[in-house]
What we know:
It contains 27 helices and 16 strands. By secondary structure, it is of the alpha/beta class. Residues 5-181 form the Rad50/SbcC-type AAA domain.
Amino acid sequence: MRLHRLRMCAFGPFAGDTTVDFDELSADGLFLLHGRTGAGKTTVLDAVAFALFGRVPGARDTNRRLHSDHALPEHVPEVELEATVGGRRLRIIRSPDHHRPKRRGTGTTKVNARASLTWLDGSGPDLTRLPEIGDAVTRLLGMSADQFFQVVLLPQGEFARFLRATSEDRERLLERLFDTERFGDLEEWLRTEARESSAALTRRTAVIDRVAGQIVALGGAEAPAEPDLAWAQGCLESARSEAEQARAALEAARREVTEAQRAHDDGRRRAELHRRGVQAAERLSRLDDGQDDLAAVTATLAQARRAAPLAPLLDEHELAAADAVTAERTWSRARDALVTLPGGAALSDADDATLRDSIDSWTQESGRWEPLAARLAGRPAIVSEIDTLTAQFDDTARRLAELSEVLAALPDRRDRAQAELTRAVELRSRVPGLEAQRERAEKVTTALLARARVDQALERITTQVLVAREAHLETREQLVELRSRRVAGMAAELAGGLVDGEPCVVCGATVHPEPARPDERGHVGEADEAAAAAAEQAAAVARGRVESEQAALEERRKSLDEVIGAATREDTEELLQRLSTELADARRAAERVPALQRAVEAAAAEIDTVRADVATLDSAQSRRQERLASLREDLGELDVAVAEATGGRLSVTERRQELADLCEAAGRLRDAVRARDAARSRRDEAGKRLTARCVAAGFDDADALRSALASPESIQEWEARVQQAIGLRAAAQETLADADIQDALAAEHVDVALLATALDTVRQAHDRAAGRHTIAARRVADLERFVADFWAAADALAPLRDRHAELAGLAELVSGHGQNSRRMSLRSYVLAARLEEVLVAASARLHQMSSGRYEFVHSDAVGPRGRRGGLGIEVRDEYTGTVRATTTLSGGETFFASLALALGLADVVSAELGGRVLDTIFIDEGFGTLDPEALDLVMGVLDELRSGGRVVGVVSHVGELRERIPAQLEVVRRDNGSSVHTNQPAAIG
């Protein structure tokens, strides 16, 4: 990284625009940044850091108030930096969060941070989002903000504290600079595996204890202190013996039940026959006792059957009589209705002809009133039209007033619609760009999700690879062992193929008195070796398969990293949400463009329409006024004609209604007279027919017929009763004729209850025997299962103990416990190795700055009171040959030791980050503690730093440095804010 130009505005102590030309300052490779205390020297470095990362180093970042107190509140704090980073020239402009005065009212409002990155070499699209800019800078620099603050901006006092820090504090700083996360993950993985192994061992031990307890519960015998398979097998054999005894008892009980069941069934059959015979005899006796009642029912049934055909005639006569009564009542009501009307009383006893003549006379009189009534019928329509036209006239007047107001407001509405249309068209033009940005963000989001899945798969496949490798090594060792045993036992293998009388393939003898024998571990044949070789080959194939899958996943993750870059899920989700919101707003605006265009056109058209409506309504008002005058004249003429015709006694409508009521009442009376006479005739005819039929059927009169009639239900009930009696008598006689029933009635009584009690007793005995047998058989089955579980659990316990001991030891070791005498965790061990590299690089510079007196020494000793060690720093004093603590160094010695340590750390971090060259480095303060000779030595080291093209910026207020370093940037403190002044070598000379 090389800095070119820095501009600050309203930032820290710099109120106005302040520019630093680093190209001019760094021409000689070394420049001095000096000024009075508090002038703002460190702020220049803060501005560089803020431009790159959006934050400032150390504790100053906790107070985010970067707006200059010397600047006006409305001035925007801003930093602009031009630099070449990673071979690409760029310009970054950043503004922090700040508050500005409100545009309306009092108080302030918060302004969010903003930034932009412009590629001055034209190598890519410009960036405006804070996360994208941060990712781009981190990717090009190859280091995080914390690393940059430590290795480029060597801060005030930080490395003096690092030099004297405890191992714990030093570890925290080194972890920020060096990635040891994977070693911490390994420590956690081993601890997790040890915990899971301990849990598995506990579970397996608990299984053995549980199974032993179940065997004790079933076997009924106490377990020994160390239960074994012989004890479990003895419990099983005892249970099997008891089960066999229970089975024999069950068979005996089953035979007793069969005999008792046979006796019980025979007794029940004979008792049932006896019961049926007794019931049949009792039924015949009851039928004989009820014979008189049955005869009476039979007679009543016969009379009801004769009366049934005459029931319709009786119903007909009763219906005709009821109709005659109803007709009389209707005639009486019609007569009363006519008498109550004017002129109707004279017709109360009139006949049909008189009533007809009266109706004709009233009808003729009503016809004479028809013409005037027709004219009068139109009067409500005239009145209604007058009211309607009057209301319409008033409504139209109000409508004309409203349209006048609308016509006055329409031009303003048209102008507002045109303004909305202009804004919507502008938003629509942003849609393509926003869609492209969102598509890029969605690709990154998809890649982030895929990378998470790949990481999970990698974690899983890594475990599988370790397992496959162990399995492969185990099968390979087994194959080697089998081959060695086979070679050693080859003689035994040849001896296995000898047959008496046949020659030996080795010596040719046909007698084989002492053939070789295999060793105690058993003979290893060709088939055994082939099986082991096949197992080894299968394990190798399995190992290759999971290793290939692991490589594919790692390649996949690499490709996803290229897509993702330095993006994070939170930043990408935030970007997606913002883009989606902006795109949705733009699309909604685009969708509204046609509607807004139509609204503008509609507003213009509405103006013309309203004007036309006003003209139309004015014309309609004139026509409506003329029609009202004509209608009012017609209404007056009609009222005069009606008054002259009626003389004021009745209205035309009232007289015509009176005549209509008389005609209607007289007509109803005529109909009632005719209906009454017809009903009387029907009643008399029905009475005559009923009397004739009753006499023919043997009934004295209609009352006798009515008494003999019965309902169909009663007839059906009587018939059923007669048939039931006949059927019961036949069934009883048939039952008593049965030979088996006669034998049962003659035999001795059978006690079925006693037989049932005997059967129940033997059944209960059988159930108890069956229960004992079931329990014994179930206990045998459970014991067989538990003994098998006991054997399996005991067989699997030993390897679990061995694995747990191994995992627990490793977990303790990498965590700095157990047999780890230095109490160093694996992560601390790795950091100690990095610290050794730092001390080697730093010792070269410390040796030079101390005139060969000092060099750093790494200490891995355990700390006081058993604290973890491994990150100790000491110095070797070549003058005395002793190793000393860093706290014994003087102030000047502490400064150049800290500087050497900082430079060494910068070298190692640079190498760790892929060997990137740090073209610019700043050293902040500390030179005031050096004497002239020590200062010469330090300046020599700084000259070496710039010899490779590196630019070194020294931040100090020490006056002697202004004489030694010609290129200077002076920060001048004033009441209205600080400013900078550049001094070039020519000016000084």
